[in-house]
Amino acid sequence: MFISPFNVSVFIFRSTTLALPPSMAMPPTPSRPWAELQHDLLVAIMTRVGAPDLLSGGAPRACSSWRAAARDPLAWRRVDLRDWAALTSGRRAAGPGPSSSRVPVQAALAGILDLAATLAEGRIEAVLLPEFADEDHLLFLAERCPNLHYFSLPSTCMTYDLFCKAIGELHSLKGMAVDESLINYDVLLHVHQCCPDFVELKVSALYVDEEMASVICNSLPQLKKLEIPSSDMPAAAIIKFLDCLEELEYLDISGYETSTISSTVLEKASRLKVFLWNSKFELGEFVDCSNCGEHNINPGEPCKCMMEHKVMDWLAGPTQAS
User: Fold this and answer.
1) pLDDT at 29
2) How many helices (H) and strands (E) does the chain have?
3) Which residues form a coiled coil (predicted)?
4) Residue 294 and residue 286: Cα distance in Å, rounded?
């Protein structure tokens, strides 16, 4: 039968589900309880759960096997305490403890560090501290965590003497993240002398000039990884790092506030394995304008004259190819 393309009928077929006889039915897939997972696999999961949940009792209260995995020293090799709000809210929900609202935050943090060090049995390798942590907490880590490889200490009120005292006990230290207030030649030289395997530094700084770059290069010549994100940094400082740190493999200066990446910088950085440098100019947060001044600091919005220029281009229509 001929079917005209202008008069096409639509046929709908109903689908029916056929019930198979019991002899041909597929047996249901057996399910295994989470509690029966291998202990090593549970420990690997606990390392990704995070300190807030481990300390608040969420995961450990699931069952006895999960509790055993949460108390395994290998689950505490990396302790991240930066999200203090999540940590303390979880502790309050779990019941009274060292993070109670009646306990000062300094003492609460000391109690949590003591608990983590006890559970880890000296195997903590990395600790990321909250902003209010001070040299007393670092001294505690130096005493209870002899195998510490990395710490993050964002405090801006740190005394050189106590900081150096703690560093003197951390002979296995390989890296640290600190505020710019600790970027001092004598302090970093002490780190270099006490920690022979130290190769990683992260600095929180608003501005890094060539002088600060020289301090880092001269005191820590064996650095392999350097992170100074979201910092205003001239090209001279970047070139200083690239020229003086001969073993440098990883440089992160992403989010800098000056457009200083030149062909010279890129050529010198080509020897690195990783070079992160996404400029705020390139991301569109700052718009350079010769009419309005150096730059219009208005994230996400161009200056008025640039808008007018774009409107005129749009009214003129597409450019004809010659």
Assistant:
1) 63
2) 12, 10
3) none
4) 10
